[in-house]
Amino acid sequence: MRSFEDLVAQAQDTDVTGWDFSWLDGRATEERPPWGYARHLQSLYADAASALDLDTGGGEIVAAMPVLPARMAVTEAWGPNVLRSQAALGPRGVAVVRASTDRLPFADASFDLVTSRHPVKPAWSQIARVLREDGRYVAQHVGPASAFELIEVFLGPLPRARTARDPQNEMKDAVAAGLQITGLRTARCRMEFHDIGAVVWILRKCVWWVPDFSLERYLPQLRDLDASMRAGQPFVAHSSRTLIHARHPAG
Q1: Phi and psi of 204, rounded to 5°?
Q2: CB atoms within 10 A of CB 229
């Protein structure tokens, strides 16, 4: 295995925009939820006349759809990802809008379908507002305590934070906004990190995991993780995912 310094330097120098995780191939793995989210969306997009994808990242999920609705829009708040989305989706006629989900710049009842993979924070009132009657919201959310085994290596125990993103609470918030929940599934998926570069890269990409992350601040923890992985022990964590189906009731 390459030296600690080389692995960290490479991870520091590698682009982390968009939601392409292929840089981790051979260095880290994550079990996938059983429902296959992208495959799940294909028939929904093909059947919709209009759709909106929230927090689209670099537009990777939408770009993978073989058929898109006649009117397709995506939102993304982070500038570098907006540029990636425009490059990937603009040629297919997709409207790429820089916006956060709590202030969607669309008229009421604009879309048949709203989707999102790993939204930052579901803005249920906005989702309900832009959906047409009988419109659907289909999304894969990050669930509670996702990757917390890794996060707590750096931040220590976070008992209160572990309860955030509880699907039962999200379901209540959706209903309070006027939506009906028509389906809910959860999964907890094994993650393995095999070298320290993979850890540094994922913490740079998912900046909300350890918001104050820097090599200097957390060098002792990184050294300890590196030593364990060099001894042949991958670092194991678990991602948490929730698949939600909701609809805007007619009338």
Answers
A1: -75, -35
A2: 20
Tokens 């659907």 found at: 136
CB count in 10 Å sphere of residue 208: 8
pLDDT per residue as tens digits for the range 213-224: 999 999 999 999
* Structure confidence by residue, pLDDT tens digits, 106-158: 999 999 999 999 998 999 999 999 999 999 999 999 999 999 999 999 999 99
CATH superfamily of 4-247: Vaccinia Virus protein VP39 (3.40.50.150)
Q: How many helices (H) and strands (E) does the chain have?
A: 9, 8
- With 0-12 / 13-18 / 19 or more C-beta atoms within 10 angstroms meaning exposed / middle / buried, residue 164 is middle
CA proximity to 135, closest of 182, 68, 188: 182
**pLDDT reading at 235 higher than 90:** yes
Burial of 55 (0-12, 13-18, 19+ CB in 10 A): buried
Predicted pLDDT of residue 160: 92
For residue 235, give the H/E element and its range.
Answer: strand 235-247
Return the H-helix or E-strand segment holding 61.
Answer: helix 60-63
d(CA 240, CA 116): 16
Q: Which helix (H) or strand (E) holds 76?
A: strand 71-76
